[in-house]
Structures are given as structure tokens and as C-alpha cells.
Write a structure and sequence with these properties.
Layout: E1 2-4, E2 7-10, E3 13-14, H1 15-22, E4 26-30, H2 31-44, E5 51-55, H3 62-70, E6 74-77, H4 80-88, E7 96-98, H5 105-113, E8 118-121, H6 124-137, E9 141-146, H7 172-183, E10 188-194, H8 205-221, E11 227-229, H9 247-261, E12 264-267, H10 271-274, E13 278-289, E14 293-298, H11 307-311, E15 317-319, E16 330-334, E17 343-347, E18 358-361, E19 382-387, E20 390-395, H12 400-403
Parallel strand pairs: 4-19, 5-6, 5-12, 6-7, 7-8, 8-9, 9-10, 10-11, 11-12, 14-16
Antiparallel strand pairs: 1-2, 2-3, 4-13, 13-14, 13-18, 15-18, 16-17, 19-20
Helix pairs in contact: 5-6, 8-9
């Protein structure tokens, strides 16, 4: 993804050509970048040889899941729909873990039938439900228990999952009591200690603190866990120039931990695999003059990309075609939805734009299309994958007829 003769291109295809052929807005992904990210992840952690389960909630496009499966990844799922889609994409059951605080009896039953690797339970009530269903089915089910390590990931409050006030996992006391209980269970095999402290983490310290907490609780439990599921949460550089997470350093810490406890490591990366592989191409509808800034109204909206509205974060916005003219006023990039939160970014220094120009919203591969909606009865955008110098339509644009 780069500029070629001042035109922004994704793997050899100019974005203005894509916009002309497929209309806008467009989600477009680079297979080359997906493959690079997966290989880099594997390379950084080759000393511990982990089971890598891609977080389906970050991007649930079926064709992308198929490509990820071909690159030897499993899946981390949090709903029946995600589990069914992962299986339908060819991902083997023995490489799937099922997370989430509110699994229904139907979801648990389906996961047991499909013989997935692990159900990571998050409460005593859930474990009792798994046990009840397993007894009826006359099966022994492999599970993990998700610990809440009370570790602050120092990230956005909306995506923090490892502090004691968060809904995820169980406390140390409950964890130890559940380990004792499950030692006597006839229908459950306790196989895994699971943990996930948050998302978009760019600092090694929270992970190091988490490993120390796990080390202590494993000693207290007096139990050998076949698997330690360390979750995901590895961040990406949305702003270009941010400090990057040192995965090599993290892998060395995990290696010591793994050797000490003789357990297999599971990871659940999503954003770090898919986040920077996607762009959102949008066309300017109007430029509306304001007092201190001009509003650039584009044809993409918060229904297409809700992260800025939901988390108050910004994605970099760049022009599809560079010029040397500078705007006298700041630009606020906004969508056409009837909400004040339907805005993407305010940029003080930007090149001069005109109505009908194209802009690119960067790094939308994770939690972009998967969080999209039909709010204001807006059809969802088309999704394209660039692979081996070919354009694949991996999700057609929704039509109003379908919606209405």
C-alpha cells in the first residue's frame, strides 16, 4: 500500500480505478499484507511454537477466514455464528477455542458436538451448565477457565478486559475453588488456564505483569495445565510513529514461563493479523464551510466504520491523489448519518480537497466491517481482496432492495 505517481495504490491497483469500477465506499484488503503479518507473528514466537487461533470477531469475512486457515491458523470464537462460520471456512474443530461470558445452552451443546479444542468457561454457572450438558450427552468435555488477573492493560477503558471491575473471567479465589471442584468431575477435563487482559496493547509491561500473576496462581492451584491461553490484544500503529509492541521480548518471557510449567501456549490475535491490511475508500459528497474548520462530508459513515464513534479514536485519513496545494482551514471528516458522533477525524494540516475527490481511511481491517450495521437503513459496503494481482469480490455490496 503506497503512492505511485501521487496515486494511492493497494498491491498494484490504483484506488481511483477501484472506486470507478466498484463505486464507494469500498473495504479493500491486501492478501500480501495478511500473509506478511501471519509470517511475522509466527517468526516472533517460533521459539514457543504456539497454537494461533485468529480472533474471528475482528474480521469474520468467510474468504479471509479461508485464507487464514490455509496459512495454518485456528480460530477464537465468541458466538454460535462465529463457530459455525469458522467451521464452514474449513478451520478444523481441534484448532478452535470458544470464549465469551454468556454462552447459551444451545451454543455449548453445539461446541460439544463438534468436538472443538476448548470451551473457555468464565463463571461457575457456565461450568455447571457444561457439566450438565456433557452428562446428558455422556461425553467428557475439555475446557479452560478464564482468570481475571486484575491487570491493567493501560489501553482504552472500553476495550480493557483484565481488571477486577470488568465482566470477564473469574477472581483468583473462584479460580482456585473451581480447579478443586473440577478435579472430581466425571464429565469435564480441565485442560487450560485462559487469560485476556485487553486490546490494542503497545507496551510489554502489562503482559509481563500478567505472566507473574499466572505463575503465582499455577503454584497455588497445584495443577498442571496442558494449555495456557494468553489471549491476544497486541496493538498496531494507527498513528504511524507510535511505539510498537516488542514481540521478540514478549516471546522470551513466555519461553521461560512455558519451560517452567511445561504447557502449550495458545494465542488469540486478531487486530495484529488483520488491522493494517485493510483500507476504506470513500468519496467526498460535499465540503461545507464552517467558522474555524470545513466539514468534509464523505459517503462512508459510522455504520460502515463505528470505531471513531464508539471508542473516540482516530484512523489516519489520506488523499487518494496527492497535490501540492494546502487547505487554509482544518478539515473535519464526517459522514452523512444524523448523529453528531458520525465523524472520523479532524486534521489541521491537509492538502486542498474538492468535492468528488477520494479519500482513504487507513488500518480498518479489524473491527471495521465486523462492527458495521444498517443504521439509517444504509446498505453495507462491498469488500474486495487483492490477491496475486487479482481483485476478488469477497462480499458484494448490499442493495436497498435486500434491506427493504
Amino acid at each position: 500500500m503506497k503512492y505511485v505517481s501521487n496515486n494511492f495504490s493497494i498491491d498494484g491497483f490504483k484506488t481511483d480505478i477501484l472506486a470507478k469500477k466498484y463505486s464507494t465506499p469500498i473495504y479493500c484488503y491486501s492478501f500480501k499484507k495478511i500473509k506478511e503479518n501471519i509470517n511475522e507473528f509466527k517468526d516472533n514466537f517460533k521459539n514457543i511454537n504456539p497454537i494461533i487461533c485468529f480472533s474471528v470477531k475482528s474480521n469474520s469475512n468467510k474468504q479471509i477466514l479461508r485464507e487464514i486457515k490455509k496459512l495454518k491458523l485456528g480460530a477464537d470464537v465468541v458466538s454460535l455464528g462465529e463457530l459455525m462460520k469458522a467451521l464452514n471456512s474449513g478451520i478444523k474443530p481441534n484448532k478452535i477455542v470458544f470464549s465469551g461470558v454468556g454462552k447459551t445452552s444451545k451454543e455449548i451443546s453445539y461446541a460439544i458436538e463438534k468436538k472443538i479444542l476448548l470451551i473457555n468457561a468464565e463463571s461457575k454457572s457456565e461450568i455447571l451448565e457444561i457439566e450438565k450438558i456433557a452428562k446428558i450427552k455422556k461425553k467428557k468435555v475439555d475446557i479452560g477457565i478464564r482468570l481475571n488477573p486484575n491487570t491493567d492493560a493501560k489501553t482504552l477503558s472500553q476495550i480493557s478486559t483484565g481488571k477486577k471491575e470488568n465482566k470477564f473471567g473469574v477472581s483468583e479465589k473462584t479460580f482456585l475453588n473451581l480447579v478443586k471442584y473440577l478435579k472430581k468431575s466425571k464429565n469435564i477435563n480441565l485442560k487450560c488456564l485462559s487469560v485476556h487482559i485487553g486490546s490494542q496493547i503497545l507496551n510489554n509491561k502489562p503482559y509481563e505483569k500478567m505472566l507473574k500473576v499466572l505463575d503465582k496462581i499455577i503454584k497455588k492451584s497445584n495443577f498442571h495445565f496442558e494449555y495456557i491461553d494468553l489471549g491476544g490484544g497486541m496493538g498496531i500503529d494507527y498513528k504511524k510513529g507510535n511505539r510498537k509492541l516488542n514481540l521478540k521480548k514478549y516471546s522470551l518471557k513466555i519461553k521461560k514461563f512455558k519451560d517452567k510449567h511445561n504447557s502449550k501456549i495458545i494465542f488469540e490475535p486478531g487486530r495484529s493479523i488483520i488491522g493494517n491490511t485493510g483500507i476504506l475508500i470513500s468519496r467526498i459528497i460535499y465540503i461545507k464551510e464552517g467558522y474555524k474548520k470545513n466539514f468534509v462530508i464523505i459517503d462512508a459513515a459510522m455504520n460502515d466504520l463505528i470505531r471513531p464513534a464508539l471508542y473516540n479514536v482516530e484512523h489516519r485519513i489520506i488523499p487518494a491523489k496527492k497535490n501540492k496545494l494546502k487547505s487554509k482551514k482544518a478539515y473535519e471528516f464526517v459522514g452523512p448519518i444524523c448523529e453528531s458522533t458520525d465523524k472520523f477525524s479532524t486534521v489541521k494540516k491537509f492538502q486542498k480537497l474538492r468535492e468528488k475527490d477520494l479519500i482513504i481511511i487507513c488500518d480498518v481491517g479489524a473491527y471495521g466491517m465486523s462492527l458495521s450495521s444498517n443504521y439509517n437503513l444504509r446498505p453495507k459496503p462491498i469488500e474486495l481482496l487483492i490477491k496475486n494481482s487479482k481483485i476478488q469480490i469477497i462480499n458484494k455490496r448490499q442493495s436497498l432492495k435486500e434491506l427493504i
